[in-house]
Amino acid sequence: MTGLRAEPTRTTGSETRAVPRVFARYPIVAATILTGVIGAIIWFAGADDVARWVVSGYALVMAAVRGRRMLRELLRGHGGVDILAIAAILSTVAVGEYWASLVIVLMLSGGEALEDFAGRRARRELTALLARAPQSAQRVGDGDLVVEISIDAVALDDELLVRPGEVVPVDGTLLSRFATFDDSQLTGESLPAERVSGEAVMSGSVNGDSAIRIRATAVAAESHYQRVVQLVTSAAQSKAPLVRLADRFALPFTIVSVAIAGTAWWLSGEPVRFAEVLVVATPCPLLIAAPVAFIAGMSRSAKAGVIVKSGQTLEQLSRVRTVAFDKTGTLTVGLPEVVEVRPHARLSRGELLALVAGVEQYSPHVLASAIVDSATAAGLTLEPATEVREQTAAGVTALVGGRRVAVGKREFVAGLVGEITSPPPRSGQLAVYAAVDGAFAGEILLSDRVRDNARSTLAQLSRLGVRRTILISGDLAATAQHVADELGISEVRAQCLPEQKVEAVKELTDRPVMMVGDGVNDAPVLAVADIGVAMGARGSTAASESADVVIMVDDLSRVVRAISIGWQTNATALRAIWLGIALSLALMIVATSGVLPAIVGAALQEVVDLLVILYALRALAERADRRLAR
Question: What pTM, to 2 d.p., does this model score?
Answer without folding.
Answer: 0.71
